[in-house]
């Protein structure tokens, strides 16, 4: 098996990456009261030093009252947290890496079990004023990312969190202009977020959006049931200013629609003509939900992945748990040291090495 395709440089606008491997965003919730620590800086710098092409940070939240569901999820606003992030990006650059924060609002997913220190109220629908401020805060965090020297920004539009709650008819029951019967109508919030970010960061700064059909509330949920519905979802986002679509699946090899073996990233690229990132069980046998149940999984080879990459289905490949387990995963793959790759152990979720 040749992994050469993974080590071709990637260029889009003024973003230049040395290879096709992206570190997937992974919440660590170890930033004291929202401020990234030196340990977090070292954790990302270690992966930059071991040749990860592009690092996406763990989800880091915007300046809204209910944007996070765990106290030690990092903020992406406020002097102290932004100074922490400045240390992170400087260390990543010093180690030859590139990085962007994944900016996030968890929406209506908080529970008092997650967040014992605050009094939980039942979530209520956002007012139009809330919506306008939330859009403005997404833009403010993206602008801060650019000002701090990050290379890209990723909008978390996946997995059943705020932006995805607007996309999904099960959670979006609004009767105003942010609701509607069609996916296109329910995409308006995301489109407005992307437009505001584009206006804040200018034309050249790369905007990635992470999307998923599946929701943590329902793994079999689908926003787009046909390629036509997927067009209705993705084309307005492209028009609003998205550069790269990050297409989250639990297993990258699963076909999105019947009659073709293209996965989500494959369809997103075909529909939009934009670069796409695939993700989901790269280098591992079992998918990531098991990790939250305390289960590990064995390593797997990269033959199917590189076949699809060589075929041009997608441009970049995000790797989650394998890189959580082993900061040197990319380096080992590059050097052909496949026997040194590790199985994923659930215990690594608790460490920050
Ligand atoms: C510990 C952990 C934390 C995660 N946190 C996030 C997150 O903050 N944002 C996000 O979009 N996905 C998150 N994910 C999903 C990963 O980005 C990725 O899509 C998933 O783990 C599948 O990739 P893998 O099979 O290579 O691990 C998380 C996954 C894990 C294991």
TrEMBL record:
GO terms for cellular component: cytosol. GO terms for molecular function: FMN binding; oxidoreductase activity. This is 2,4-dienoyl-CoA reductase. Coiled coil: none annotated. InterPro entries: Aldolase_TIM (IPR013785), OxRdtase_FMN_N (IPR001155), Oye-like (IPR045247). Residues 5-339 form the NADH:flavin oxidoreductase/NADH oxidase N-terminal domain. It comes from the Bacteria. Pfam families: Oxidored_FMN. Transmembrane segments: none annotated.
């Amino acid at each position: 098996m040749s992994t050469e395709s993974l080590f071709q440089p990637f260029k889009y606008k003024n973003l230049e990456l040395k290879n096709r491997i992206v570190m997937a965003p992974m919440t660590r919730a170890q930033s004291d009261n929202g401020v990234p620590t030196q340990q977090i800086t070292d954790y990302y710098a270690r992966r930059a030093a071991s040749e990860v092409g592009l690092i996406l940070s763990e989800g880091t939240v915007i300046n809204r009252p209910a944007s996070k569901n765990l106290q030690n999820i990092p903020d992406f606003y406020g002097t102290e947290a932004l100074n922490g992030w400045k240390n992170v990006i400087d260390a990543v650059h010093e180690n030859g890496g590139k990085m962007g924060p994944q900016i996030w609002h968890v929406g209506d997913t908080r529970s008092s079990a997650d967040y014992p220190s605050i009094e939980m109220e039942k979530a209520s629908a956002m007012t139009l004023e809330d919506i306008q401020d939330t859009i403005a805060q997404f833009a403010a965090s993206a602008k801060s990312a650019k000002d701090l020297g990050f290379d890209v920004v990723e909008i978390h539009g996946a997995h059943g969190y705020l932006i995805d709650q607007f996309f999904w008819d099960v959670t979006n029951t609004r009767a105003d202009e942010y609701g509607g019967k069609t996916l296109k109508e329910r995409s308006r919030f995301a489109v407005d977020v992307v437009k505001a970010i584009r206006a804040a960061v200018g034309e050249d700064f790369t905007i990635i959006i992470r999307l998923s059909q599946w929701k943590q509330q329902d793994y079999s949920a689908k926003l787009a049931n046909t390629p036509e519905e997927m067009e209705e979802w993705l084309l307005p986002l492209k028009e609003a200013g998205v550069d790269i679509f990050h297409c989250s699946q639990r297993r990258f090899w699963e076909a999105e629609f019947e009659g073709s073996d293209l996965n989500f990233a494959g369809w997103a690229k075909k529909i939009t003509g934009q670069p796409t990132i695939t993700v989901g069980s790269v280098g591992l046998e079992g998918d990531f939900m098991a990790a939250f149940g305390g289960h590990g999984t064995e390593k797997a080879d990269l033959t199917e992945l590189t076949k699809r990459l060589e075929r041009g289905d997608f441009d970049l490949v995000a790797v989650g748990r394998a890189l959580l387990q082993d900061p040197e995963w990319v380096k080992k793959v590059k050097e052909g040291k496949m026997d040194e790759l590790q199985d994923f152990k659930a215990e690594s979720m608790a460490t920050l090495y």
